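Tip: read the tokens left to right.
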């Protein structure tokens, strides 16, 4: 998006410019507005670990061709630069994301699971169109932070809490959006701590706190020379001035804007407070439940729920942040296959206006088509999927396909240029809200599949009820006979 369009040139230029800044300027100037670092021109706004990654990329780029990262260069879009930058994303896919996917599905599940199923799960995670299109098309490095997040989840699954805390701190220090997952991890660890003996809990708390503190200290060391230096980084990481949301994002505030003009009624600061309060209230049920029930299964669902709540209600949400809810959902693919596949497909649909704007329509069709072929293994009727749910899934995708075709083929009315984008946002938001409800019920151990067909009452439960009724009737007959004998 923005390729060849001055003065900003798009997101690809942002990543290239960050390489230029980090490889040419001292670390203390990376987040400050100076004569060599105009923050209005793609100023660095991700945490220090991203900056270090860009610096490494920049050093490699300078070795290949110093012009790639020449200080003061703008809008560099020559083919060699593009090839190099795209190779850096693919390198992280091959060196980090793919091994992470393999590790998670191989080591987090029962040994009884078939190798074929493991391979399909790995393929679906690595082949998820949303991440491929955003990282390689819109141009981001979400594969790094999400890999660290998945590895942290795997570590907690294997009861390696210290390692898990370290990995999540790295993920959080790569992209601040990982805050979406911070509360569930905290609730899980805190819930486990308070269930231990006091001495064990204190020891574990000190260990976890030390790992977190030392990790942050090591990564933030160049920026803690003064309070002004720290604040300059924080102001870049949390830009409240950017507004409630970007474009037509599929969250509650945007979807409801057709009725309530939030941006006109409230100031940005007031809206930020409203979002904070709303998000906090909606997060509490999942958060408190996980503290009381700190199991791995509950943690997996709480990670999805927290990310969905943040996406639906928080301040300044971007279309691509739905990835932070989809990736943890893929981790429960085996438990809820149809719902997860449905969620994955709708998430790509929700980003369609952004992908079209980036000129990624053909890659979107291609990657979604391939993904659909792979996912058919998981959308077949099963004992956990009623005919009604399967029908709803098919009708939903049919409606999404029709809206997509209309968006591509039919010019929007001059009076309503954002008509189709808003339709996509509202349609997707309704789905995300229902998915949030589903995953909350799953976290609370409420079997949603029982709602689909009352005949799915288990045989054991039916026998228990039948036995209870027979026993009660027999007891009544005995009492009646005794009463008649007395009379």
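Filled-in amino acids:
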């Amino acid at each position: 998006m923005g390729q060849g369009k001055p003065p900003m040139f798009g997101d690809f230029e942002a990543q290239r410019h960050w390489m230029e800044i980090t490889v040419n300027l001292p670390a203390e100037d990376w987040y400050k507005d100076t004569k060599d670092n105009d923050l209005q021109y793609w100023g660095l706004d991700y945490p220090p670990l991203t900056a270090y990654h860009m610096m490494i990329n920049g050093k490699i780029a300078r070795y290949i061709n110093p012009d790639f990262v020449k200080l003061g260069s703008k809008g560099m879009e020559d083919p060699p630069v593009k090839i190099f930058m795209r190779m850096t994303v693919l390198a992280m896919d091959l060196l980090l994301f793919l091994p992470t996917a393999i590790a998670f599905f191989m080591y987090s599940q029962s040994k009884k699971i078939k190798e074929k199923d493991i391979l399909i799960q790995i393929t679906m995670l690595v082949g998820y169109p949303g991440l491929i299109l955003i990282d390689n098309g819109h141009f981001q490095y979400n594969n790094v932070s999400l890999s660290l997040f998945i590895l942290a989840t795997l570590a907690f699954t294997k009861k390696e809490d210290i390692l898990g805390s370290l990995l999540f701190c790295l993920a959080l220090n790569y992209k601040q959006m990982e805050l979406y997952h911070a509360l569930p991890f905290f609730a899980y660890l805190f819930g486990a701590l308070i269930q231990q003996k006091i001495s064990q809990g204190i020891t574990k708390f000190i260990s976890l706190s030390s790992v977190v503190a030392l990790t942050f200290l090591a990564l933030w060391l160049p920026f803690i020379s003064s309070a002004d230096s720290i604040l300059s980084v924080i102001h870049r990481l949390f830009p409240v001035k950017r507004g409630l949301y970007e474009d037509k994002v599929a969250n509650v505030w945007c979807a409801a804007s057709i009725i309530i003009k939030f941006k006109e009624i409230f100031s940005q600061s007031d809206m930020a407070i409203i979002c904070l309060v709303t998000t906090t209230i909606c997060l509490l049920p999942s958060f408190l439940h996980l503290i009381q029930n700190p199991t791995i299964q509950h943690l997996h669902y709480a990670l999805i729920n927290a990310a969905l709540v943040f996406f639906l209600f928080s301040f300044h949400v971007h279309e691509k942040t739905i990835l932070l809810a989809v990736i943890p959902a893929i981790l429960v693919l085996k438990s809820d296959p149809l719902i997860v596949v449905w969620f994955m497909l709708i998430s790509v649909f929700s980003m369609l206006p952004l992908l079209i704007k980036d000129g990624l329509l053909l890659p979107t069709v291609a990657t979604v088509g391939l993904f659909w072929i792979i996912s058919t293994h998981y959308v077949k009727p099963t004992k956990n999927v009623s005919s009604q749910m399967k029908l709803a899934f098919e009708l939903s995708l049919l409606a999404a396909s029709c809206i997509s075709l209309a968006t591509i083929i039919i010019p929007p009315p001059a009076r309503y240029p954002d008509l189709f984008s808003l339709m996509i946002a509202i349609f997707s938001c309704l789905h995300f809200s229902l998915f949030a409800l589903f995953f909350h019920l799953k976290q609370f151990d409420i079997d949603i599949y029982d709602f689909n067909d009352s005949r799915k009452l288990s045989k054991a439960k039916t026998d228990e009820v039948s036995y209870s009724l027979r026993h009660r009737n027999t007891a009544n007959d005995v009492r009646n006979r005794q009463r008649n004998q007395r009379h």
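The chain has 21 helices and no strands. The mean pLDDT is 88.
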